[in-house]
Amino acid sequence: MKLDLADLRVIVTAGGAGIGRAVAETFAAAGAPVWTCDVDADALASVTALDGIDGMVADVGDTGSVDAFMAAALADLGGVDVLVNNAGIAGPGGPVETLDPDDVIRTLDVDVTSMFRTARHALPVMKEQRSGSIVNISSTAGTHGFPNRAAYAAAKWGVIGFTKTLAMEVGEYGIRVNAICPGSINGPRMDHVIDLEVEASGRPRDEVSDGMVAQVSMGTFIDPEEIAETIAFLVSPLGAKISGQTLAVDGNTETLRS
Questions:
Q1: Which of 27, 69, 146, 152 is catalytic?
Q2: pLDDT tens across 243-255, in order?
């Protein structure tokens, strides 16, 4: 069954690499116009060189930067049908008492507060047209405890609360809001997460990596494209009655304690 995506105007944060880039490329390949942002100018230039994708450098942790990005995106697209809040950082690693409060605040700001920043621009447009879909990227850390990653876990649990509350607020306008919880994603960001755990636990890198795979029933990491394809389904007509849901795409994470 073919997904109908070509008429959707899409905004996705942090589209320069990883999940965000896979999302931008998936929608652009389907004929949908896409606007994205990234803090990495080189990564952004690489993705905006592709047909159908435009964007600008922006830091989702800064309100003024997000205001400028969303204003430009909405003006160029003539509105928005899909908002994918993908931006996030790994945050500090280690026991809670060792964490720098400024690092914790920055993690919450980028991983949760950024979604408020983008949504407050997109929602008036979606409400007026009485349609739209917002997908927030959480994590399996948003449904499990995650030792030595308290800031990240707290942020990703916050994404779930934001998603479910927003879905209740805007459902009457025909707007759907869902969260996706990716498992361990193949790529540089996962390599950094493994490095954090190695530093916090003192265990060998291979042991940490193998332990993460062993926590998953299907025994596998996830590819960014698999998350993008799930998002495409959710915002398509096939997902027309799916809202307020938390969907794990992770091979069934059993625990985050290795």
A1: 152
A2: 999 999 988 888 8
